[in-house]
């Protein structure tokens, strides 16, 4: 934790400036001054959710709360659909591909992909509309 105060009259209980410890400081704040505490931490490499941080100030027996939130970079998800071949042969296998890509800097959680193959229909030699695929 680092801090910057505008006045030399503002003091911080220097004994409590310790690495990897919660902020629990006693500050004597000079008139018309402010102090900024900088908490610089290494974010968990597997973090995916919001980081919500709440600070509490107690003065004259009254608690005052302030909250700040760090959000993860969002995912940028795209979907591509393609066929492996341009033409199909009745009675033979054909392949569709579904490619899902996250082009973003953050995790993309709860991405739901659907491809309703059971609903594909094709006109048959008899003129009827039937299921396009029998097995997939």
From TrEMBL:
Signal peptide: none annotated. Pfam families: DUF11 (PF01345). Residues 76-119 form the DUF11 domain. It comes from the Bacteria. InterPro entries: DUF11_rpt, OmcB-like_DUF11. This is DUF11 domain-containing protein. The lineage of its organism: Bacteria, Pseudomonadati, Pseudomonadota, Gammaproteobacteria, Vibrionales.
């Amino acid at each position: 934790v680092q801090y910057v105060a505008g006045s030399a009259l503002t003091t911080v209980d220097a004994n409590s400036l310790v690495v990897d410890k919660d902020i629990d400081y006693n500050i004597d704040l000079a008139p018309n001054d402010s102090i900024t505490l900088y908490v610089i931490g290494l974010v968990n490499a597997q973090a995916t959710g919001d980081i919500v941080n709440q600070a509490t100030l107690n003065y004259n027996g009254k608690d005052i709360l302030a909250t700040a939130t760090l959000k993860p970079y969002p995912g940028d998800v795209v979907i591509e659909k393609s066929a492996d071949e341009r033409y199909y042969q009745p009675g033979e296998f054909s392949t569709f591909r579904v490619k899902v890509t996250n082009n973003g800097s953050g995790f993309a959680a709860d991405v739901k992909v659907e491809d309703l193959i059971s609903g594909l229909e094709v006109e048959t030699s008899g003129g009827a509309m039937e299921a396009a695929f029998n097995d997939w």
